[in-house]
Specification:
This protein is of the alpha/beta class and 401 residues long. The chain is 35% helix and 16% strand. Helix 1 (35-47) packs parallel to helix 11 (354-371) and helix 3 packs across helix 6. The termini are far apart. Keywords: Flavoprotein, FMN, Monooxygenase, Oxidoreductase.
Length: 401
């Protein structure tokens, strides 16, 4: 394998990223909310030796923003991403599990405990994709706060001024504090705090549990956690970013950022912005993966034909924040190799139709990358951090204090 192998994961979202994917013959729409459907998808990804699966979630129903609440032609329901990951953790062995968990209406103490538990049940394969919730409709689900949703005029003004609307910046400032609280809670137990000494009747060494005493604008959390430090010490924190503010957020808080380069310009313009955002970052550099929506050729039809047919089904062209790829696995391998050589650490592919395109990724794309010595031919033992090339030993900030 090449000295700088590329990393490859997939983002799973229901029946697939195209809104009509659930209507495909192989999409198993009657099983979307069953454990078997999800274990089969993650099993396929693991068969392809992928680094991780991320599992989409939000506090709003799926569908493009602005989709009418009474729309019946798209899937308008979700099950919880973290609980999906918890379900598949014991029956998978190597692949990383990265659920989306929203910070805006979720207490960081609960997030810390849930993800630490996932790290235990998966044997050190947990990650977290941080997401904010910025709509008034989502806030209304909880009724505890109001969220100022930027108007189109405010967003337009922010673009002209080159700065985010104040409400948007506040959401990400809150999310940054939430991640900091979660990380501190993961460290609030030292690795050897559990002594389990029956003779002295001491399960823990109380001197190795620490108050975090976090006081910020949005949270005041004393700690410690009630869950021991996770196997990885710090599970992998990720974020999807499309703008300088979110690149800055990722540089402050995350281990890995997902970006969305365009096919015409390639990854360099965004890589330059990410580099600028992490200029003052200390320690490990931020890993950068590019998102691509994939419609791959199969024996039955081309990816382009499948996309065209799905668009005809919905009556509109599929639009995505990420670049859309249609073509053969060889052509996609060419693109990944090219962008990898231009500075990306890896890629996260979004299967246009989950069952069809994930199978093509595992069974067609991966063997090509292996023949080119760009991708592993077997899983190493270890954690998700190790799989992604991150340090596997993370110092505890509270140890020896």
């Amino acid at each position: 394998m090449a000295p700088n192998p590329l990393h490859l994961g997939v983002a799973l979202d229901g029946a697939g990223w195209h809104p009509a994917a659930w209507r495909e013959p192989d999409s198993r729409p009657d099983e979307l909310f069953t454990p078997g459907y999800w274990t089969d998808l993650v099993g396929t990804a693991q068969r392809g030796l992928l680094d991780f699966v991320s599992i989409e979630d939000s506090l709003a129903p799926p569908g493009a923003r602005g989709t009418p609440a009474d729309a019946v032609e798209v899937v308008r329901a979700r099950i919880d991403a973290h609980l999906i990951a918890a379900r598949v953790a014991p029956i998978t062995r190597h692949i990383g599990l990265i659920p989306v968990v929203t910070t805006t209406h979720t207490e960081p103490f609960h997030v810390s405990k849930a993800l630490a538990t996932l790290d235990f049940t998966s044997g050190g394969r947990a990650g977290w994709q941080v997401r904010v919730s910025g709509t008034a409709a989502e806030a209304a689900h909880f009724g505890r706060r109001t969220v100022h949703e930027p108007t189109p005029a405010e967003l337009a003004e922010a673009v002209v001024a080159g700065a985010p609307a104040g409400a948007v910046r506040e959401l990400f400032d809150e999310a940054a504090d939430a991640v900091e609280v979660v990380r501190r809670l993961w460290d609030s137990w030292e690795d050897d705090a559990e002594i389990r000494d029956v003779a002295t009747r001491r399960f823990i060494d109380r001197d190795k549990l620490h108050y975090i005493d976090f006081r910020g604008r949005f949270f005041t959390v004393r700690g410690p956690s009630i869950t021991p430090r996770p196997p990885q010490g710090q599970p992998v924190v990720t974020a999807l970013a499309h703008a300088p503010l979110i690149y800055e957020f990722a540089a402050r808080t995350a281990d890995l950022v997902f970006i969305t380069p365009g096919r015409a310009k390639g990854p360099e313009p965004i890589l330059e912005q990410v580099a600028a955002a992490q200029a003052e970052r200390t320690g490990e550099p931020l890993r950068v993966h590019a998102d691509l929506v994939a419609f791959l050729d199969t024996d039955a039809e081309s990816g382009a034909a499948r996309l065209a047919r799905l668009n005809e089904t919905t009556g509109s062209e599929f639009i995505s924040d990420a670049a859309i790829f249609t073509g053969s696995a060889e052509e996609l391998a060419d693109l990944l190799a090219d962008w990898h050589a231009r500075g990306l650490d890896g890629f996260r592919l979004r299967p246009g139709v989950a069952v069809t395109d994930l199978t093509a990724i595992a069974d067609r794309l991966v063997p090509i990358l292996q023949r080119r010595k760009l991708f592993r031919t077997g899983y190493p033992d270890g954690s998700l951090r190790g799989l992604l090339g991150l340090p596997t030993t993370v110092p505890n900030r509270y140890a020896n204090t």
